[in-house]
Specification:
single chain; 637 residues; Rossmann fold; Serine Threonine Protein Phosphatase 5, Tetratricopeptide repeat; 3 domains; six-stranded mixed β-sheet; three-stranded antiparallel β-sheet; 25 helices; flat; UPF0353/GerABKA_families
Amino acid sequence: MTFLPADFHFLRPEWFYALVPLVLVLWFIKRWRSQATGWQGIVAGHLYQHLVTGKQSSTRSPFVPFLTLAWMLGVIALAGPTWERIPQPVYQVKTGHIIVMDMSLSMRATDITPDRLSRAKYKAIDLVNLIDEGDMGLVAYAGDAFVISPLTQDASTLKALLPGLSPEIMPVAGSDPVLGLQAAEELLRSAGFQTGVLYWITDGVEISQMKGLSDFLSETPYTVNILGVGTAEGAPIKQLNGELLKRNNGSIVIPKLNGGALQQLSRQGGGRFTELTADDRDIRSLAKTDRFDNRETREDDQDNQGDEWREAGPYLLLLLLPIAALAFRRGVIFILLVGVGTSLPAPEALAQQQSTPPEAMAADTASEPVKPVLSWWQKPFLNADQQGLAAYEARQYDSATNDFDDTAWQGAAQYRNGDYMAAAQSFAALDTAQGYYNQGNALAKAGELDAAIEAYDKALARQPEFPAAQENKELLEQLKEQQEQQQQNDQQQDQSEQDQQNQDDSQQQDGESDNSDQQSEPQNSEGQQEGQQDGQQDNQPQPNDANQEQQNEGEENQQQGDEQQNDEQQADNEARQAEAQQASTERTERDKETQQRLDNLLRRVPDDPAFLLKRKMQLEAQKRQYRRPPDSNRSDW
């Protein structure tokens, strides 16, 4: 700890007013002591001192000096003497950045090589690279203003869109900077930024536009920095076809940069004005690079130490302990007991839980009995929510659920305990956007996707700008679609398996019926032969070889029938496989045709960001033309 006299100061100097009562008390004590004996009115003053000397010495006590010393030490301690900063990181307020580009035809002027527009776009890209943090957006304006890129943290998006900007893609000709600045302000305001910076890159304004710009800059809460592009002499406007822009009377238009007017506007906007330079001085001036360069300074730099100071007042209170001991005497033991009692460590159960890892604590709570978080002497000093918070931090969620009176904390404890349906009911009672969001999370954990999506809808209805609720809702909708698709696929697969099984059963039944028919035919022939043999036996005897031949013929017929059935079944399987292969080939050909058509459609889409921006702004301008009256005073450049 180093003492720097230049940094020594008091954090709360108003406490020195408390010395005034001390002066009054000392004056009262002195007056009271002077009138304590009553002899002052009778004995002369020069004699009174000698007559009552013994009395004074016997009644004099250290009370007044100790009171004065204790009072002064207490006042100085309360005033907060300090001379050392506390090292701590300094975080800057989140700020939005919007680049407002002038896309009027005057940006085609050639007083700057190659022209104003090209240099302005290069400067805008350099500005994006220099900022390179936070949310950045891009707005372009001519006769009307359009948001080219909403606020994003991806700087490459702006760098990809800037080269495609040109006056020719703007659907409304002219120059209306008020609309451009208003669009940028609305972009920051809708994103919830309390602070922001508008970087306005322009080649000048008309005198008739000064009042509207002045009114806007005096009311906007955001800083407006201006970069002037062009020269005071000006130059003709060279169009894409090589011709110079002319007025209706045939004179050539020569726009000039009025730096004085832009500098006046920058002061009203609380920002800076700079003209375009060949190096990066202009961009660094706009971006206030000293704000970014401070991050690279040494750790002991005062600007990076924060505004917290190490207070020395509590150390002065230690000097009051002997005085307090002398004043209270026997009460010193009581003070020591109170001090020791207040400095006792936390109970054993709480200390163990704080030193135990979360994973081990979760396992222990499942196998060991839960120990109380708070001791009996702590609970009377805490309300129900404070007791529940202690149990919640100790991961004793069952106890926390019963202790909490606050519905939100009770739902959080139920959620952590795995009782998601009870947590959903608790969060629903809040009737707030955050409550419905938490209810949706609990229902999603419980597997109630439809109810969770409905809860997210309620949260978005109360707070439309709720990115977390929107993302969770979209995720659940995708998950629900996947489940439905999986169910449909399972049903189709089960149906196809059932159809295949039925087809196999029917084929098996057909094969069995064919076998029974073929087997019945030999039996009938054998019966007929037996009848003939009986008749022939009556007439004349037959040898046994004829009967054996007929039996062999029946067996051969049965074997031929089995072979014919197997051949037919094999032919059916081959035909089925051929049909499946043909269907697969046709499906593949259809997929190839579909992909080819999609490729052809994609080739027809122009790979030109400027064209897409132009179409986007044309559609937006068509919607606006019915809501905004035309400006007859607006020029075409």
